């Protein structure tokens, strides 16, 4: 078998950004590249885990040695994650669209059908992380929180509130803005558990991902792998 801190463990990581169709050719989406989730999948694989990457519209290639499950919409991502919820580690790194388009059209919309001032109505998507947290499980559930809060203490406080609200075991908190957080840039994350900040890492996404995976491996140490 493989060696490393996560040898014998199964890890599922969602990455990228979900798209919600308006019609067969248009969608509402976000700018997530999937770089952080892909870096995590790569770090987990390097630590010896069997890794599945549930990729939503990735802008970056999936790492070698990782099973890739491609999805587009939030509904598809939810189904892929629920099917794999019994993994030893489940990481929700994807930017999930909070809303989907109500009554998405089966046929391409046109200016004739839409008129001069169309409106797109949205409806709430399920919160996949919260749903995973509500399932009976033995594994470790890791969520992400991208916040724009400039003040550091307030940022961490928002993260702690989010962790509690979602019910995950760990929350990876990062600050995002117009030039922070998205794409292959330097980043800083804090990893939170119910008691507070358990790790603080800065640098390229690959090195931050290794620090997060170290944290996960420490949590799992002492529990038995099947
Ligand atoms: O509430 P917020 O979007 O900031 O939460 C971010 C975390 O929740 C991420 O782990 C993200 O993958 C997850 N999420 C989810 N389903 C949603 C929205 C966010 O699983 N509908």
Automatic annotation (TrEMBL):
Catalytic activity annotation: (R)-4'-phosphopantothenate + L-cysteine + CTP = N-[(R)-4-phosphopantothenoyl]-L-cysteine + CMP + diphosphate + H(+); N-[(R)-4-phosphopantothenoyl]-L-cysteine + H(+) = (R)-4'-phosphopantetheine + CO2
Domain DNA/pantothenate metabolism flavoprotein C-terminal intervals: 6-218
Molecular function, one GO term: metal ion binding
Binding residues for CTP: 98, 108, 126-129, 144, 162, 166
UniProt record, GO biological process: coenzyme A biosynthetic process; pantothenate catabolic process
EC number: 4.1.1.36, 6.3.2.5
Span list, region Phosphopantothenate--cysteine ligase: 11-226
Keywords linked to the UniProt accession: Decarboxylase, Flavoprotein, FMN, Ligase, Lyase, Magnesium, Metal-binding, Multifunctional enzyme
Pathway named in the protein's UniProt entry: Cofactor biosynthesis; coenzyme A biosynthesis; CoA from (R)-pantothenate: step 2/5; Cofactor biosynthesis; coenzyme A biosynthesis; CoA from (R)-pantothenate: step 3/5
GO CC terms, sorted: phosphopantothenoylcysteine decarboxylase complex
The protein's required cofactors: FMN; Mg(2+)
Note on how the cofactor is bound: Binds 1 FMN per subunit.
Keyword GTP-binding found: no
Protein task: Catalyzes two steps in the biosynthesis of coenzyme A. In the first step cysteine is conjugated to 4'-phosphopantothenate to form 4-phosphopantothenoylcysteine, in the latter compound is decarboxylated to form 4'-phosphopantotheine.
Family indicated by similarity: In the N-terminal section; belongs to the HFCD (homo-oligomeric flavin containing Cys decarboxylase) superfamily. In the C-terminal section; belongs to the PPC synthetase family.
Protein's name according to its UniProt entry: Coenzyme A biosynthesis bifunctional protein CoaBC
Organism in which the protein naturally occurs: Agrococcus pavilionensis RW1
Taxonomic lineage: Bacteria, Bacillati, Actinomycetota, Actinomycetes, Micrococcales
